[in-house]
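Re: weekly structure request thread

Next one in the queue (437 aa):
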Amino acid sequence: MTATGATWRNWARSEKVRPARVERPSSAEAVQRAVAAAIRQGMHVKAVGAGHSFTGIAVAPGVQLELGDLRGVLAVDEARGRVTLAAGTNLYQLPELLLPYGLALENMGDIDRQTIAGATSTGTHGTGGSFGGLATQIVALTIVTGTGDVLTISETENAELLPAARLGLGALGVIVDITLQCVPAFLLQAVERPEPLEETLDSYLDRSSMEDHFEFYWFPHTETALTKTNSRLPFGAERRPLGRVGRWVDDELLGNGVYRGVCATGTAVPAIVPPFSRLAQKLTGNRDFTDYSPRVFVTNRAVRFREMEYAIPREAVPDALREVKSLIERRGWRISFPIEVRSAAADENWLSTAHARASGYIAVHRYFRENPEEYFRAVEEIMMAYDGRPHWGKMHYRDAESLRATYRRFDDFIAVRDRLDPERVFANDYLTRVLGA
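Done, posted below.
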């Protein structure tokens, strides 16, 4: 299908564009035809997924390819636990698609609205000191390059391109399918507790290394961390899921309904934010349950926000968060959203925020109707002092010259881009800023 472009907006309402043309290919061949046509016409092409990136990484002023018709399981290698998915498959579809084969993703983030191609291309990750981001689970993918060719990249075919293509920012081509290395389905026991912030910071390194999946949230204006520890259990272990009413009260009524109202009111009356934060720490984060892994990893997020997240060397996280806390107090800001702290294992993907180093993540947020720039820029200065790397799909203010200094294989990635998209068919303003022309 081809249509005149209507205005496209991302989920956070931080980016919008009116594409010259929108196409909705339903096969790899249709993607190839769309890219070839754009090349002939001298137009840029961008594939979009769920629009859950906060940056302009998917903004398409030229031809916008919507891949919603490229969904589902294409092939399964049950012996090796590998599943090939069409690129437009949403993460929330995966539990139903994988469970018949007794499989699951090894790790997930807490949002599942993204497409598999969008999530991996921007560096989406969960938490767990021994686990990599979603892109580390890729063993093969098929892309349409900037020359209009269909290219298979795998462990046995064009293998030298895998470290670039697994996490390619949409700069190397349009992904049409991805093969993931899955694991046997498993349960997670979730223990969520409020704990003193300083004690949590002191124990962060040990818990990030020893626990399967550890993270915590800190509400500014409080001295309490809401810790989340998820432990992996066999699929046949006893399930003790949250009751429907209890989950609704915690996640929907408090986590979304009441919180939306407070954020909206807080933009006009900032003074209400600190007392609400102190109340929130008392009402949330104290439960213990066991369920299928996706039901524990994922949380429904209905309140719109804008986010910046930085990866820094894991050992730097406690001091960096203390600096952010001091910054907020010194500036007198009223920050309604909690700060999230997670971890990931080092990996080999060239543009991964965890490339070649065990990483900790500090994510800051603001309600979508608030201007985040002053807060985000000030936090970014702190993170850059620790050799921080910004999440590609979340807001930041870095450029190619700045980023080259923190990514050892930056120029190797650019060389692959020169090979696969020499005319910059897949470029847009964001990619030009972070990768160069």
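The longest strand covers residues 186-196. Residues 73-184 form a domain with the Uridine Diphospho-n-acetylenolpyruvylglucosamine Reductase; domain 3 fold (CATH 3.30.465.10).
Next request, please.
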